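hiii so um. not sure if this is the right channel but i have a protein structure encoded as tokens and i wanna go backwards to a sequence. like what aa goes where. can anyone help
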């Protein structure tokens, strides 16, 4: 080995940076794709509601039962509530079974919203069950669910196994 000091120039630095980034990218591509399960969705819901009972009703989840492309699926949630200072919808949460993460959306609402309703678009990885849960100002939880068939999945990651 030579005792001469190492000289780094821009080319050496860029070359080494490219190798580091390429190595990190290769690791990311070789990892198995993340995918939620029905049990993961149930656990996410338990974390939200604790030990409280989730009642069916008051919530209407409107999502097409069959979608051709999971990349942009329209979803609307409406909750029956007078939206007064003492009786209102505080939060609306959306959960799914098979996307990489089971917790899709959290919307925080208050009495000044006037109406407990919102619309959005979500990506769906596969055909699955979707659940909307509303937390009311009195601490009660209400829900609705829907099954969605997706013919072309979103969130697809390529994995060689």
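sure thing!! here u go:
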């Amino acid at each position: 080995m030579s005792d001469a000091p190492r000289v780094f120039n821009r080319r050496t630095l860029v070359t080494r940076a490219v190798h580091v980034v390429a190595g990190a990218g290769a690791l990311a591509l070789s990892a198995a794709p993340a995918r939620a399960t029905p049990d993961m969705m149930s656990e996410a819901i338990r974390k939200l509601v604790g030990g409280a009972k989730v009642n069916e009703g008051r919530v209407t989840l409107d999502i097409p039962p069959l979608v051709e492309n999971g990349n942009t699926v329209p979803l609307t949630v409406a909750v029956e509530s007078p939206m007064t200072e003492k009786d209102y919808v505080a939060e609306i949460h959306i959960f799914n079974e098979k996307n990489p993460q089971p917790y899709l959306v959290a919307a925080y609402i208050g009495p000044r919203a006037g109406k407990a309703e919102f619309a959005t678009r979500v990506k769906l990885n596969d055909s699955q069950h979707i659940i909307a849960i509303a937390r009311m100002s009195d601490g009660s939880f209400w829900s609705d669910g829907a099954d969605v068939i997706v013919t072309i999945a979103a969130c697809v990651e390529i994995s060689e196994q």
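oh and Helices lie at 10-30, 38-49.
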